[in-house]
Design brief:
The chain is of the alpha/beta class. It is built from nine helices and 14 strands. It folds into two domains: 4-95 and 161-198 and 346-365, Rossmann fold (3-Layer(aba) Sandwich); 200-342, Rossmann fold, CATH 3.40.50. The chain has helices at 13-23, 63-79, 128-147, 161-171, 200-210, 227-237, 280-291, 310-315, 345-356; strands spanning 4-8, 30-34, 40-44, 52-56, 84-89, 175-179, 194-197, 218-221, 240-248, 256-261, 268-276, 296-304, 321-325, 339-342. The strands form three sheets. Strands 10-9-8-11-12-13-14 form a seven-stranded mixed sheet, with helices on both faces. The two termini are 19 Å apart.
Length: 372
């Protein structure tokens, strides 16, 4: 391909090599390193003047170092007069921040201090008066505390989405290509085009080819947030759907119980999720499915970060097979007998090709599109 350069950061060189192999080009020449004081050093060793540059860097490993390296590579290509610069970020860093404080194990705290910001919940009209009275009482109590010299500070939870977007565009990125953003609304932070690719087609292909009698299995979402993703796969494959739901037993209580919506007894189950970091959510959901009579439990995850002791948690969990993408390096994780990997290089290679030639990206969102 003429006037196309694909550079790879240090976060995932294997993915860069595979993408370039599918495009039929050699990876761009860049020297990446660090000085003795750990500052990042980037040297682009070939001309990118008036060329279409794609920089592949995933948000994994040493996230902050890798993100700074990406910014410097973008800036270096811009200063070297690149015609257009596209940041290809398979797993986008900082797109997921916890809504509530988490324990070091990854589990959410069972109780929160009153001053912690919470997401507003819908209330019944008949309970509105009681809640207003309770809020007035808390306000009066806080006012008394302030008068007595005991002011209570309301913790402010910083959101980094706008900052990350501004840093990328300020460095010189003209276009962003990523996959399975945790929150699709994150695209709105950017002043440049963002293509959020979906791994749904690759997941469905794996299910059709690798799960025996998959039509008799049940697609399960481990939480309400992933219900839309899981139902889309279930509808396309004509499969049953179930949902693991958190139910609050008492008003104003942060304690919640898991409940299963759907029937999984005597069936194989396929958990669908976008991110597995500490693996707390999917392992807990798998235990519930096993307790409800599920025969075999698969779990398919777009971005398997598997930090801390997540792999050990998977090994000891009720999950029989965890299928993950290689949006982040999986060489170490794949040593586990339970973990299998599906390749997203065809998806990103096709996205780069279409972007370079000015073709539509919408075809990549079609689950029937064959990337082979």
């Amino acid at each position: 391909m003429r006037n196309l350069v694909v550079l790879g950061g240090s976060s995932h060189p294997e993915l860069t090599q595979e993408v370039c192999r599918r495009l039929g080009i050699a990876p761009g020449q860049a020297k990446l390193g660090k000085f003795s004081n750990k500052e990042t050093s980037v040297e682009i060793k070939e001309s990118v003047r008036e060329r279409d540059v794609y920089i592949i860097q995933s948000g994994c490993g040493n996230v902050n170092d890798n993100f700074m390296e990406l910014l410097i590579m973008i800036s270096g290509a811009k200063i070297a007069s690149a015609k257009r610069i596209t940041a290809v970020i398979p797993h986008f860093p900082y797109s997921r921040q916890p809504d509530v404080p988490y324990k070091t194990s990854g589990a959410p705290l069972t109780s929160l201090p009153p001053a912690t910001p919470r997401t507003p919940k819908a209330v019944d009209q008949e309970d509105l008066g009681k809640q207003l009275m309770r809020q007035l009482a808390l306000t009066a109590q806080h006012a008394d505390d302030n008068k007595n010299g005991n002011p209570e500070y309301r913790p402010w939870l910083a959101r980094s989405g706008t900052l990350i977007a501004d840093m990328l565009t300020c460095a010189g990125a003209d276009h962003i290509i990523t996959m399975d953003l945790h929150d699709a609304q994150f695209q709105g932070f950017f002043d440049c085009p963002v293509d959020n690719l979906l791994s749904r087609a690759l997941m469905m292909k794996y299910i059709r080819l690798q799960v025996p009698n998959y039509r008799q299995a049940v697609i399960v979402s481990p939480d309400a947030g992933g219900a839309k993703r899981a139902t889309a796969i279930a509808e396309r494959l004509c499969m049953d759907f179930a949902l693991v739901h958190k139910e609050r037993r008492q008003k104003f209580s942060q304690k919640s119980d898991l409940m299963l919506v759907g029937d999984v007894r005597g069936k194989e189950c396929i958990l669908i999720d976008d991110i597995a970091d500490t693996s707390y959510t999917i392992t807990k959901a798998a235990r519930m499915l096993r307790d409800h009579g599920a025969l075999k439990i698969y779990a398919i995850v777009s971005h398997a970060l598997l930090s801390a002791n997540a792999v050990d948690n998977i090994e000891q969990s009720a999950i029989d097979e965890l299928i993950v993408s290689n949006s982040v390096p999986q060489t170490q994780h794949a040593k586990s007998s339970k973990i299998k990997v599906f390749d997203v290089a065809p998806l990103f290679a096709e996205a780069i090709r279409r972007s370079h030639f000015g073709e539509s990206m919408s075809v990549l969102l079609n689950p029937r599109f064959d990337l082979d």
